[in-house]
Amino acid sequence: MNKKITLACAICSSRNYTTSKNVSTKPVRMEVRKYCKTCGKHTLHRETK
């Protein structure tokens, strides 16, 4: 079952991206390096609640 999740920047905590993931196959929190327009560089984005 796919669930909609929000990704937040690890440095400035701004919520920049939304995506979906299959929670039955990937139960751990997602971490992806993406571009943060607030910081102006690529940073680590983590899944939020």
Automatic annotation (TrEMBL):
Q: Which GO terms describe its cellular component?
A: cytoplasm; ribonucleoprotein complex; ribosome
Xref: PROSITE patterns: RIBOSOMAL_L33
Has the keyword Ribosomal protein been applied to this entry? yes
UniProt entry keywords in alphabetical sequence: Ribonucleoprotein, Ribosomal protein
Q: Name one Pfam family in it.
A: Ribosomal_L33
UniProt-listed GO biological process terms: translation
GO MF annotation terms: structural constituent of ribosome
Q: Which InterPro entries match?
A: Ribosomal_bL33, Ribosomal_bL33_CS, Ribosomal_bL33_sf, Ribosomal_zn-bd
| Superkingdom of the organism of origin | Bacteria
Say yes or no: keyword Ribonucleoprotein present.
yes
Entry's family note: Belongs to the bacterial ribosomal protein bL33 family.
Query: Per its UniProt record, what HAMAP family does this chain match?
Result: Ribosomal_bL33 (MF_00294)
Xref: NCBIfam families: PRK00504.1, PRK00595.1, rpmG_bact
Protein name per UniProt: Large ribosomal subunit protein bL33
Top-down, what is the taxonomic lineage of the species of origin?
Bacteria, Bacillati, Bacillota, Bacilli, Bacillales
